Amino acid sequence: MNLTEEVGTKARELLENNVVDCVIGYERATDGVSARPLFVYQPEETDKLIFDQTCTHNLAKYLLDRKDKVTGIVVKPCDSRAINLLLSEHQIERDKVFIIGVVCPGIVETGWNKTSEKLQAACELCQQHTPVIYDHLVGEPPISEPAPEAYPDVAGMEAQSAAERRAFWEEQFSRCIRCYACRQVCPGCYCGECFVERLDPLWVGIRIAAGENEMWNTMRAFHLAGRCIGCYQCEQVCPVNIPLSLLNRKLEKETLEAFNFQAGIDAETPAPFSTFEKDEKIGIGE
Amino acid sequence: MAVDFEPRIVGFLCNWCSYAGADMAGTSRITYPPNIRIIRVPCSGRVDPLLIVKSFQLGADGVLVAGCHPGDCHYTEGNYYARRRFALLRPFLDYLGVEKERFGVEWVSASEGKRWSQVVSSFTEEVRKLGPRKSAMPQEAVL
Fold first, then answer.
1. What is the DSSP pairing of strand A71-75 with strand A97-102?
2. I want to staple B7 with a disulfide (CB 3.0 to 4.6 A). Which of A7, A8, A38, B61 is the partner?
3. Interior CA angle at A71 toward A69 and A73, to 5°?
4. Model pTM?
């Protein structure tokens, strides 16, 4: 049985037995090659569900809008970490979600009307092929343990001088049109009022200027420090192709080195900023 | 680098230790460079990373946060949380091209007037050596 059939069968079973009210998965988009999110409420509609290497979206964010109803959701390994993040931050309840985890072959680069064989950059580097949390697993998990995370891209940036990095990021941020798509798509960005929309204090001014763009991009990334689960939807949706994963991954690397913590691996370990050790030496004020 | 460059430094000082320490330096007539503009905050744990990034955005050449020594926080544990936040913020700002030396975090107690003057002096010297924060982009008006 292929992944599409397995996902569809499980979804049908869940809806027929009234285990869930809705299953969130993927369907073929109208261009015929890429995928788009699909909410299935009726067992008959489960035939539309698909799963293949074009299913790029992280659907976990939709759970935030369905807190009261039991929802089935199709997740890849990175998306499953988003569920752990939301559980640990008490945004969703475990018994309100039924997680259909899919063993991920890696997602390919797609666009409207076109698809390719080439894996997305994030998937090239990804070490996690089995979801970290699920109620039902689809696909055969690999036998080998996931390799430790490596950060060749971040190391490349670190090797440059501060002036070079500054020039690089200024150029990148200068293109930002502050559409906030990166925030809208992020499962970790669910604040009722984002700092960027506050008028008093006005952290980010409304003028389109390099300084304001820099402020937004710096703080967006930092608010996800120790929380980014690495689905890189932000980078996917960026209309001006700012390499946001380079920012997120730097913080990921630092969090791993300083606190030996990876976001979303489980829902129990306290987040690094919510706890401390009295005698730790982490390079501040020593 | 201009010879007459005077760095603009923003200081966030905790009310209970470092601000009193700076006061102690004053009442003891200990001098230190006047480049620092001190903002009094209730605790180093109050210093939101937003404040630091905003300071840099508005043209600060350096930002210095000072609080109670670990274990001495007036609110028991505020500085422990602050320490963790800054431990990530510092390398992150460096990654974005704001040199590590421009963002200092120091623990200064209310009795350490002398130490406060040394901390400010050496921090100001470091920032002076780095020079003004240069922008690769056309300079926008600094507020």
1. parallel
2. B61
3. 160
4. 0.92
**B142: pLDDT confidence band, cut at 50, 70 and 90?**
very low
Percentage helix, strand, coil for chain B under 3-state DSSP, each rounded to 5: 45, 15, 40
For residue B72, what is the nearest residue in chain A, using CA coordinates? A278
Q: Would you tell me how many other CB atoms lie within 10 Å of the CB of residue A111? A: 10
- Return averaged pLDDT per consecutive 10 residues of chain A, 286 residues in all: 91 96 96 94 96 95 95 96 96 96 92 86 88 95 82 94 94 94 96 94 89 95 96 94 96 95 94 94 88
ipTM over 0.90: yes
Tell me whether residue A143 is exposed, middle or buried, using C-beta atoms within 10 angstroms of its C-beta: 0 to 12, 13 to 18, 19 or more. Answer: exposed
Q: Which residue spans within A139-258 are E strands per DSSP?
A: none
Least CB–CB distance from B140: residue in A168, A195, A210: A210
Asked if A284 has any chain B CB less than 8 Å from its own CB, the reply is yes
Domains and CATH numbers, chain B: 9-129 (3.40.50)
Are B134 and A214 within 8 A, CB to CB? no
A210 touches chain B (CB under 8 A): yes
Among A229, A267, A236, residue whose Cα is nearest residue A251: A229
How confident is the model over B56-85, as a mean pLDDT? 96
Whether residue B140 is predicted with pLDDT greater than 60 in this model: the reply is no
